[in-house]
Amino acid sequence: MTSDILQGRRALVTGGAQGLGAGMAQALARAGAAVMVGDLREAQGRDMAGSLRAAGGQASFVRMDVTQEADWARATEATIAELGGFDILVNNAGIEITALVSEVEADSLRRMFDVNVVGTLLGMKHAFRAMRPGGAAGKGGAIVNISSVAATIAFPAIAGYSATKSAVDRATRVAAMESGKLGYGVRVNCVYPGLVPTEMGLQLAADVVAAGLFASPEEAVGSIVGQTPLGRLGEVAHMADAVVFLCSDAARFITGAGLPVDGGMGM
Predict the structure, then answer these.
(1) Which positions ≥6 away from 200 have C-beta within 8 Å?
(2) Distance between CA atoms of residues 34 and 57, nearest Å
(3) pLDDT by residue (tens digit) across 52-88?
(4) What are the CA-CA distances from residue 101 to residues 2, 5, 106, 236 (Å)?
(5) pLDDT tens profile 89-136
(6) Do the beta carbons of residue 127 and residue 77 sit within 8 Å?
(7) Could you tell me the pTM of the whole model?
């Protein structure tokens, strides 16, 4: 998707150094938004921001751990100071730790909930405070949380991850209701990406093989493709285009929604 539908908007993308987050940052920039790349991976994050600038966009990088309140405060301040405002938050940062229910470990579950759920809620908190009337940016905006098709299907060995992404879906809807009722002027939606062959997606395929569920990563991927009506894996661009849409005025009457971008897998 290439256009100027986000011209003049200022976006913070968490986990924006690689994978889906990098694709979303690039798509937002192509649509005209200035982009703050937030990530723990400092070298990769700076490189991503540099590539966005080299392509003619306005971009910067902030190192942040989404589980830390102080990092959210600092990232919000940096976005406003360096980009001139804050209109879009893409809560993309997330982790997946594969395990059969009989083998789950408490520390791994806590880590996933900390990043995927606490990180998302802290992001919405700081975006609301900045974007609502009287906030440091104060012009309203759009939040897009990245859930997963895992929130809508029963795929083995991802019970903990599925639980976190289901929580993201529910938190999105509550936040949208609060924003509307309190007059914040911030739309809140989420997307459910299907499997994409990023580093995380390929690791999942390897992990379910290690768990004894499939004979090979190819068989695991084939199972997912077989459950997908469109008969193929998703691409980063598919997810990124959906995010741009939800951030744009084309979605100006959409809030509290979950948009499947999964080839029909979760229907």
Answers:
(1) 19, 95, 96
(2) 7
(3) 999 999 999 999 999 999 999 999 999 999 999 999 9
(4) 43, 44, 11, 29
(5) 999 999 999 999 999 999 999 999 999 999 999 999 999 999 999 999
(6) no
(7) 0.96
- pLDDT, tens digit, 9 for 90 and up, residues 20-45: 999 999 999 999 999 999 999 999 99
Find where tokens 């539908």 sit.
5
Distance separating alpha carbons of residues 111 and 92, to the nearest angstrom: 16
Buried b / exposed e along 243-263 (16+ C-beta atoms within 10 A): bbbbbbeebeeebbebbbbbb
- Would you state the structure tokens that stand for residue 166, as one six-digit string? 């289901």
Which ranges of the chain does DSSP label H, i.e. alpha helix?
A: 19-30, 42-54, 69-83, 106-112, 119-131, 159-182, 199-210, 217-226, 236-247
Catalytic positions? 161
Q: Where are the domains of the chain?
A: 10-97+111-193+235-259
**Range 10-97+111-193+235-259 classified under CATH 2.40.30.30:** no
